[in-house]
Amino acid sequence: MRWMQWLPILAMACAAGFAHAQGGAWKPSRNVEVIVQSAAGGSSDRSARVTQRILASIPAFPNVSVNNKPGAGGMLALHYLNQHAGDAHFIVTLSTTVLTNHLLGLSPLNFRHFSPLAILLREYPVFVTRADSPITSARDLVERLRKDPSSVSFAYATARGNHNHVMIGLLIKAAGGDPRRAKAIVYNAGGEATTAMLGGHIDVGVVAPANVVPLIASGKVRVLGIAAPQRQGGAFAAAPTLREQGINAVYFSWRGFMGPKGLSPAQMAFWDQAFAQLVKAPEWKQDVERNAWAEDFMNSAQTLRHLESETESMQKLLAELGVLVR
């Protein structure tokens, strides 16, 4: 069924769900602002924009806009959201940086200062080089790191200690090196990190798969390995996993949304219904496939439990990698 034909069905389903949620006690009365913690072009931005398009199609939403607020590893966006306590017209992209920034002492804020709303997807980091790079595989990369961890430069986004940075540390650790010796440069968005790699300023990019799908098709990049448990489909069908190259590094990030602190039960119920309907939309499923994401929907209660569990796991992992400072 085509997307436009499907819209009336989505509208009716949402209307029924929203009416059930707290008796329809809350729904947006003005523009809903989707705040992105990174610059345009990265995975957070892509997920925010497809979310915007789908939510804007639902009658319960008067209007939906995207506001990119990159900088300080996502802190500018979070401080902005913090100015709108109790107002469910503002939501922000959610990723592992909300945990790692706090654990690394880079931010006084963590998810407990906000209202976690949903996790929508997961994605596996990918290691890429230029097509003409002398680095030919993940095994080759590990050998180079084994000889000298600082001999290879890495580009990643958007904050120190995040999932991409963790992957760099895991690879250096697999090579028997010290992750603290990594030559890793952080950028404001995955697109910027990819551009730095393509321009020859950086040896290896550690990015979201979607950042390099068109570059794979054009033959401009070489995929060294993807941190998935098994080979992926689509553009990555021929891309080897790190595991199959003898590197025990399976890891994924997750992406979703948070609201400001102090949201009411009715507001939380509204967003539970909205996101539950969003992930059923054909356009969402098409974007999941297009961006090499994996579906992984959790509602607000499940997301809160997941974040609590992930905090413990991430704390142990960062300590093992030698980057935990407190």
Query: Which term fits the overall shape?
Result: globular
Report the average pLDDT across residues.
89
Low-confidence stretches: 1-13, 19-23
Order of helices and strands: HEHEHEHEEHEHEHEHEEHHEH
Number of strands: 11
CATH architecture tag of the largest domain: 3-Layer(aba) Sandwich
What fold name stands as the CATH topology of the largest domain? D-Maltodextrin-Binding Protein, domain 2
Superfamily (CATH H level) name of the largest domain: Bordetella uptake gene, domain 1
Outline:
With 326 residues, the chain is of the alpha/beta class. It contains eleven helices and eleven strands. The N terminus is likely disordered.
What brief labels describe this structure?
globular, alpha/beta, disordered N terminus, D-Maltodextrin-Binding Protein, domain 2, 11 helices, 326 residues
Q: How would you describe this protein?
A:
The chain has helices spanning 3-20, 43-56, 75-81, 97-103, 138-147, 163-174, 190-198, 213-217, 265-278, 282-290, 300-320, and strands at 32-36, 64-68, 90-94, 115-123, 126-130, 153-157, 183-187, 204-207, 221-226, 253-259, 294-298. The strands form two sheets. Strands 2-1-3-10-4-11 form a six-stranded mixed β-sheet, with helices on both faces. Strands 7-6-8-5-9 form a five-stranded mixed β-sheet, sandwiched between helices. Residues 1-13 and 19-23 have low confidence and may be disordered. α1 (3-20) runs antiparallel to α9. It is of the alpha/beta class. The chain is built from eleven helices and eleven strands. β1 (32-36), α2 and β2 form a beta-alpha-beta unit. 39% of the residues lie in helices and 19% in strands. The chain has two domains: 3-122 and 253-320, D-Maltodextrin-Binding Protein, domain 2 (3-Layer(aba) Sandwich), CATH 3.40.190.150; 126-245, Periplasmic binding protein-like II (D-Maltodextrin-Binding Protein, domain 2).
